[in-house]
User: Fold this.
Amino acid sequence: MNNSKKGFIPVMLTPFNNDGSIDYKTLTALTELYLKSGVTGLFANCLSSEMFELSEAERLQVTKHVVDVVAGQVPIVATGTFEGTIQQQADFTNKIYGTGIDAVILISGLLAKENDSDEVFVNNVHQLLDLTPGVPTGFYECPVPYKRVLSASQLEDFVNTGRVIYHKDTSLDINQIKAKLSVVKNPEFGLYDAYMVHAIESLKAGSAGLSCIQGNFFPELIVWICDNYNDASKADELAAVQQFLVTNMGVMHDVYPIVAKYTLQQRGLSISNFTRREVGDFTPVVKNAVDQLQKEYDILQNELSF
Assistant:
């Protein structure tokens, strides 16, 4: 999933009603908010979506809902591998591809156990690809259930099958990213970086874009980085934006995704703070930190003249 233009693919939230059911009306509004901010794609049914807390039917329904709202405006990817045998993971991969998405994301930490060798992992990936003929795929180095980071040679092998067009990198290592980019030559493939600390350097090195949780607070800010990362006249502003995001990384990760939902509330989206995942308490201290974050963003926004 590569474009000539660098792009932002947000990891989507799932809005819930206060009784814990999925709020599809707000999911529509949230999807439209992402699109209005200028994203070049969407990652539905991901960790930020609380995918492990959704039932199989809900994973399919949420993804199909996003596909229907987007109506082809941007590409959509969604996770297709969960606990189970490779055959079971392949079966769901085929099902979720049937919702109309552009690629199915494979969770690297679910394609082999943590103590399994690289050989087992690689063999399992090829087995899954064999069981899902014609389905475009990608990888996400998800931290749950554990993080298995792909090596450059593994990614090269997988992309060379012609079936892998997307990679969400969470290695947190710019040298690993450069190594991966140096060996993958398929123009249809795109690497999207999740780590804001070296976001601009990653884009300059050849990443197709960014896919980070910060976009669930200020999506237009991540879009602005992707649009302007290589503009020398904006070097000072780019440094200030990246520093703002890095400085506030702890605030954005604390009891996430509740803090992201609260921020979107403050920005006018009718979304509940409810989360099915146990992430901790949204205490007054956490709330005050997020309120301060919003104030600092408003100042930055004025300086950048969004």
